[in-house]
Structure formats: C-alpha cells, structure tokens
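Standup notes
- DV: blocked on the single-chain target, sequence here:
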Amino acid sequence: MGPAADRAAATVAVRVRPGASRTRVGGTYGDGPDARLVVAVSARAVDGAATAAVLAAVAEALGVRPRQVGLRQGATSRDKLLAVLDPPDDLEARLEALRRAGTGR
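- DV (later): unblocked, structure below
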C-alpha cells in the first residue's frame, strides 16, 4: 500500500471467486464474526489479475476511489484482507448492504 498506509484505514475481509461469468460484489462466505464479503471477478487467478480486479470491484461497490483500496494480506489466497484508506463514515452500513445483497435478505 505504500506511504499512504499510515493514514486511517479500515480492514475488509473478502473471499474471492475468480473466473466468474461476471464481476459481482455481494453475499457472505462463512458465518458469524468471521464471515467474509464475497467478490466474484471474471479475471483468472493468474499474475495478480484477479487481485487487481477485486480491488477495483470493491472500490466501485463501496463508492470510493480505486486508490483508496489496497491489499493488506492474501496476495495468492482466495481469502484476502483489504485496506480502505480514509473510509467513509458509513462504511459498515455499505458493507452490510453488500453482504445482504447476495443472500436475499
């Protein structure tokens, strides 16, 4: 994430589904406090293409600039921790709406 990592950041846990028919952010993987936001991307998990697609998709879904979302952990894993720099005040509400979007609740 570089020098900007020193600014205020929120952590978002995601579960990536690479190679999907379309890019989509919504739903949960797992239960309880360990549940992760599901991010399906059409990019394959090759040379970081899926990770780059995840960062862009999450930024768009949260309504923040792409440069505000970076990878904190999990470069080669389907389970990733993302950092959202200078998160909006209603970040938790936005995340909850996305989690519910994929569950039909």
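- Follow-up: The longest helix spans residues 49-62.
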